[in-house]
Design brief:
A hairpin with an 8-residue loop joins β4 and β5. With about 375 residues, this protein is an alpha+beta fold. The strands form three sheets. The chain has a four-stranded mixed β-sheet. It folds into three domains: about 110 residues, Butyryl-Coa Dehydrogenase, subunit A, domain 1, CATH 1.10.540.10; about 110 residues, Butyryl-CoA Dehydrogenase, subunit A, domain 2 (Beta Barrel), CATH 2.40.110; about 150 residues, Butyryl-CoA Dehydrogenase, subunit A, domain 3 (Up-down Bundle). Helices cover about 50% and strands about 15% of the residues. α6 runs antiparallel to α7. It binds flavin-adenine dinucleotide (FAD). The site of flavin-adenine dinucleotide (FAD) has 22 residues, from β1, β3 and α10.
């Protein structure tokens, strides 16, 4: 076993780190306050090859692999969580199209996702009444005169109002997962209506919207993969997505640790720096240890995916552990900052707000435990 990054992985990590330091970090607090979609930052990611990290070069990607992708998300999330979630979903959509789309779909959409000609991609699975239980979704697609007509509504869709292309799951058959198909819907298609963005606790530069489909017509060849096989596409994409969320959580937690170390050195109490108190030292030591464990879990899941080996359980473990760990690390970071942790003069309150949703989206912690336990009991 070799823990050393290869040249490509090191280069991608370094590129993402520099971009985070020079472009993202200086604007992250402002984006959080203004709720502004980080369009300029997304263009910078595209120029650095970070919107299609695991996408073949022939479709505009960097073809640098899943480990590189995980490392890049960690660096971007450490600076700006809102940018990192936009990046992660856009990468995910590009990968879905590469894995399940026709040649025509790949040529049409993937280069635009990787180059930021589309401001983002969107993954439209959840509905107002169907989140964890996504197989019970109600949005319906019916065939009419050689076209698909979609009706229904989606909820919580990251970048749903700005995306150039959306993967949309809709029911084409009977109840349950077997009746679900996936479609590619272009942004701006008549009948696709986005609600105003939700007012969120964190990741505020990333718009999360409800979508309504009102007789939204798409061509017959907008069907992604086979009819009735859409749920499998969603589940396989979410396995990869969970590597992204785990990486994001690691990045945010690391930023919280770095801020806490700096503060612990500076802040004086009882005649010495608070870093000299064992209570603070133990918090820092626990944070660092748990971040390292989460990082290794995320990279392990990434490597398994990269090698084409089964990684569902490992991705769920990485997502579960990293997100729960990161919430705790950010809570501790606020505690280490005392009263200053509770105001936005320091970034740790933003890290805590940003990280909170990592235990919720792309499958809650409860659903990750369900996936892990199911695989344990069936093996
Ligand atoms: C900021 C943000 C961005 C998002 N982006 C997207 C996106 O881009 N695309 C998309 O499709 N969705 C997106 N989501 C939706 C997200 O994936 C769902 O919120 C999540 O899957 C949970 O679904 P729910 O909110 O309906 O909660 P519910 O499914 O109603 O769950 C409520 C509670 O019950 C628990 N629960 C449910 N079922 C079980 C069970 N069987 N066993 C034990 N506990 C259970 C859950 O863990 C949770 O604690 C986003 C959500 C947020 C907050």
């Amino acid at each position: 076993m070799d823990f050393k990054l290869d040249e490509t992985q090191e280069m991608v990590r370094e590129t993402a780190y520099r971009l985070s330091r020079d472009v993202l970090e200086p604007r992250a607090a402002e984006i959080d306050r203004s709720h502004e979609f980080p369009e300029e930052q997304i263009r910078a990611l595209a120029e650095a090859g970070l919107l299609g990290v695991n996408v073949p070069e022939e479709y505009g990607g960097s073809e640098a692999g899943v480990v590189s992708y995980s490392l890049a998300v960690m660096e971007i999330a450490a600076a700006c969580a809102a940018t990192s979630v936009t990046m992660a979903v856009t990468n995910m959509v590009a990968e879905i199209i590469c894995a399940f789309g026709t040649e025509e779909m790949k040529k049409k959409h993937v280069p635009k996702l990787c180059s930021a000609e589309y401001p983002a991609g969107a993954f439209a699975l959840s509905e107002p009444q169907a989140g964890s239980d996504a197989g019970s979704l109600k949005t319906r697609a019916r065939k009419k005169d050689g076209r698909w007509v979609i009706n229904g509504s989606k909820q919580w869709i990251t970048s749903g109002n700005v995306a150039g292309v959306l993967v949309v799951w809709a029911r084409t058959g009977g109840p349950g997962a077997a009746g679900v198909s996936a479609f590619l819907v272009e942004g701006g298609t008549p009948g696709l209506i986005a609600d105003p963005p939700e007012s969120k606790m964190g990741q505020r530069g990333s718009p999360t919207v409800g979508l309504t489909f009102e007789d939204c017509e798409v061509p017959e060849d907008a069907l992604l993969g086979e009819e009735g096989k859409g749920f499998r596409i969603a589940m396989s994409a979410l396995d990869g997505g969970r590597v992204g969320v785990a990486s994001q959580a690691v990045g945010i937690a690391r930023a919280a640790l770095d801020a806490s170390i700096a503060y612990s050195r500076d802040r004086q109490a009882f005649g010495s720096s608070i870093g000299s108190f064992q209570a603070i030292q133990w918090k820092l030591a626990d944070m660092a240890t748990q971040i390292e464990a989460a990082r290794l879990l995320a990279l392990q899941a990434a490597l398994l995916k990269e090698k084409g080996r089964p990684f569902t359980t490992k991705a769920s473990m990485a997502k579960l552990f990293a997100s729960e760990m990161a919430v705790k690390a950010c809570l501790d970071a606020v505690q280490i900052h005392g009263g200053y942790g509770y105001v936005d003069d320091f970034p740790v309150e933003r890290y805590l707000r940003d990280v909170r949703t990592t235990t919720i989206y792309e499958g809650t912690s409860e659903i990750q435990r369900l996936v892990i336990a199911r695989n344990l009991l069936s093996s």
